[in-house]
Write a structure and sequence with these properties.
Number of helices: 7
Number of strands: 0
Distance between the termini: 30 Å
Strand content: under 5%
Radius of gyration: 18 Å
Shape: globular
Helix content: 40-55%
Length: 183
């Protein structure tokens, strides 16, 4: 996915990655999050998407199996956050389906309890780029979409998170604040 986002596709590397992804597909058409694990919806969506980027068509038998698994398990609207971010980078789901991650979070003081410095160094190495991407919301349009992976008709798609808790409410507030010109 990164090669395509950066516009630096190496066909030989891409084909090798596609073969590797296919080699890990489970009998039910899914891919697991870890070796020997059960089929995972978001991992399967990401593998399907990567294979489509590599030039595979949705009519290929192995992609059809993956699509059946994805639809049986809720489709794109049930994907976890990181999968949504991957798809939003290519305009396949709206950025509004991703949590608000304002870059100014890095300015929060340690005494607040949610400072960037409260996270481990490896987590910060992931969080800071996500904050930058979430603020800029770049999109690299593709020649295809993934409409075949939605379980619901267009007017009935709901990307909301099912539970209401502090973080969901905070996300709603941050989404509201994103509409203002100052940040």
């Amino acid at each position: 996915q990164l090669m395509h986002f950066l516009g630096a596709v190496d066909p030989q590397v891409q084909e090798g990655l596609a073969k590797r992804i296919f080699s890990q597909q489970r009998e039910d058409g899914s891919w697991s999050l870890f070796f020997g694990g059960p089929g995972d919806l978001s991992t399967t969506i990401e593998c399907y998407f990567s294979l489509r980027l590599a030039g595979r068509t949705p009519t290929e038998v192995l992609l059809e199996k993956a699509r059946r698994f994805i639809l049986k398990n809720g489709g794109l609207t049930k994907a976890r956050v990181f999968t949504r971010i991957h798809l939003a980078l290519f305009g396949l789901v709206p950025w509004s389906t991703c949590p608000a991650m304002p870059v100014w979070f890095v300015l929060l003081p340690p005494w607040l309890g949610i400072s960037i410095y409260e996270f481990s160094s490896w987590a910060r190495a992931s969080i800071v780029p996500l904050l930058l991407i979430g603020t800029k919301k770049p999109v690299r349009p593709l020649a295809f979409d993934l409409q075949e992976l939605y379980a619901e008709p267009k007017g009935e798609r709901n990307f909301r998170f099912p539970r209401r808790n502090f973080f969901i409410l905070l996300n709603s507030l941050l989404k509201f604040l994103e509409k203002f010109p100052w940040h």
